[in-house]
Amino acid sequence: MERLLVLVRHGQSEWNLKNLFTGWKDPDLTELGVEEAVAAGKKLKELKLTFDIAFTSVLKRAQHTLDLILTELGQEGLETIRDQALNERDYGDLTGMNKDEAREKFGEEQVHIWRRSFDVPPPGGESLKMTAERTLPYYRKEILPRVLAGERVIVAAHGNSLRSLVMDLEGLSPEQILKRELATGVPIVYRLTEDGGVESVQDLAD
């Protein structure tokens, strides 16, 4: 039985381009982001991958990415479940702030700690650990059982919500996952074992 799970981070968003902390705010894709999403769909098409169900966040940059991918695959109208459990990490008081301005205001070291530590949240926001505490239960309850039942599943979400899933799937430590970069618009193809472990992983980055 095939147990296929594809994770893809949304294409570049308008706030990515402006170097802003985005979190739960809802900007759409840039022209480049649209191109990245279309390219992701083409890569999956080249591998002759299609899906039985899709999951995404409630934020339009992830939904738009998914829509563009499914259009490339000829799967417009595929059953799609949207849930805020897959939303990006909430950056709290940093949301909407330019990352360079944040460094000037709070200091380079403090901003680095907020961005790159596992369990230190920015003021009013979430750490990666807190993000994982909402994404992983959702993954284990709603997504993983469908993969293990033989459904081919695609998840279009965000850098940090996906990072928490990658950490769990690949058995990475907090230190290892913080160094793991997920490129925008690049699918990661997992084939899972019957107990939910990873049999193989293919990163479709060029």
UniProtKB/TrEMBL annotation:
Enzyme Commission code(s) on record: 5.4.2.11
Gene responsible for this protein: gpmA
Gene3D superfamilies with a match to the protein in the record: Phosphoglycerate mutase-like
Organism of origin: Stappia sediminis
Family that this chain belongs to: Belongs to the phosphoglycerate mutase family. BPG-dependent PGAM subfamily.
Function noted in UniProt: Catalyzes the interconversion of 2-phosphoglycerate and 3-phosphoglycerate.
Matching Pfam families: His_Phos_1
Assembly description: Homodimer.
Keywords: Gluconeogenesis, Glycolysis, Isomerase
Catalysed reactions listed for this entry: (2R)-2-phosphoglycerate = (2R)-3-phosphoglycerate
PROSITE patterns: PG_MUTASE
Residues with site note (Transition state stabilizer): H158
Active site: H10, E88
MF annotations from Gene Ontology: phosphoglycerate mutase activity
Official protein name in the record: 2,3-bisphosphoglycerate-dependent phosphoglycerate mutase
Coiled-coil stretches noted in the UniProt entry, renumbered to this chain: none
